[in-house]
Amino acid sequence: MSVVALARVEKTLAGLERKSRFRSVALGSGIDFASNDYLGLASSPRLKTAINTAIKRGVPVGAGGSRLLRGHHIEHEMLENEAAQFFGAERVLYFANGYAANSALFSTLPQREDLIVYDALIHASALEGILASKATATAVPHNDVDACELAVRKWRRQGGKGVPWIGVESLYSMDGDKAPLVGLAEIAERHDGFLVIDEAHATGVFGKDGRGLAADLPTRNNILTLHTCGKALGASGALLGGPAIIINYLVNRARNFIYSTAPSPLMAAAVREALHILADEPERRDHLERLMAHAGDRLQLQLAKTPSGSQILPVLIGDNGRAVSIARRMQAEGFDVRAIRPPTVPEGTARLRVSVTLNVDEEKISAMFERLSLALMESTP
């Protein structure tokens, strides 16, 4: 690398440091209040057994190629078939991760004459796909159904003749609040469009058998759902469900799918077992619901903040440096709480993202909020 390029990189990193936005990877330690392992399945004996059993029957560790070459394995096929039945989709496509799936979806499906209306707080992976799309795109204020309707109507008035695509998360990853899916589905139906629902943080936690928040919507052929496997399912990958014709189009046109090595067949076996666990062990969701309620009570009582109603509890700090300082103090005291800063969240909204999982209990939750209350009081605003 040239001296000029190195100097430029060094300057950028120094700027991030000054703004308290410099990032580095850190091993998890202490009590887990940071992961997305909501149901505690990442270390589940059943997932371990499923992988060991698959190895014994000859399932390879690696796929060896893309799905369109020799990388397609019967484990991928069985997972997609079972997932389609589980989530009520006509067909499902298994991607290596949610980022690839979101990017593929938005960069491939909307065409030049179409419109993408997306929530301002949607995942970065969706934004990546939207940026690569040839369609017109517009952001609307968070969870604002009327703004979404107005955006589509304005586009139509200005001559838009294609298909509107509405992109949202069912449960927002940094705020923990739910999308008004019923109203958004009605807009998509009214304007002959598609509703794309990223269920990343709802899958496994909400809906019958953990099928997600979209499971409560009437079945429609204009709804696509994305279920990531690396959060409540305890594995990795992503399952995109929708009409078979849409999935076939992605297989033929989505570069993220065509030119990527297929996910490990062993991981497909693990995800399949995770879906079985969702159906077999509803007590996990019941237990998590109790922990969520307890955490919400502690948040309100000790920090005077309104709970989100989900397993994701944001504690807004505002200043980047203060958020980092408080997070470090919590980690030093044995609680793995992480600071979330721009550009992941809007400027001026740095926060601590408290995640409630089955890796903790009520006693640990209470202790964490007691320590956090003290850290907030003693930190300098």
Assign the CATH superfamily of the largest domain.
Answer: Type I PLP-dependent aspartate aminotransferase-like (Major domain)
From the spread of the alpha carbons, the general shape counts as: globular
Order of strands, main sheet, comes to: 2-8-7-6-5-3-4
* Count of helical stretches: 13
The structural domain count equals 2
Residue windows where pLDDT falls under 50 for at least 5 positions: none
Order of helices and strands: HEHHEHEHEHEHEEEHHHHEHEEEH
Count of distinct strands: 12
How would you state the average pLDDT, rounded? 95
Query: Which fold name corresponds to the CATH topology of the largest domain?
Result: Aspartate Aminotransferase, domain 2
Compute the separation of the termini in Å. Answer: 41 Å
Q: Can you tell me the CATH architecture of the largest domain?
A: 3-Layer(aba) Sandwich
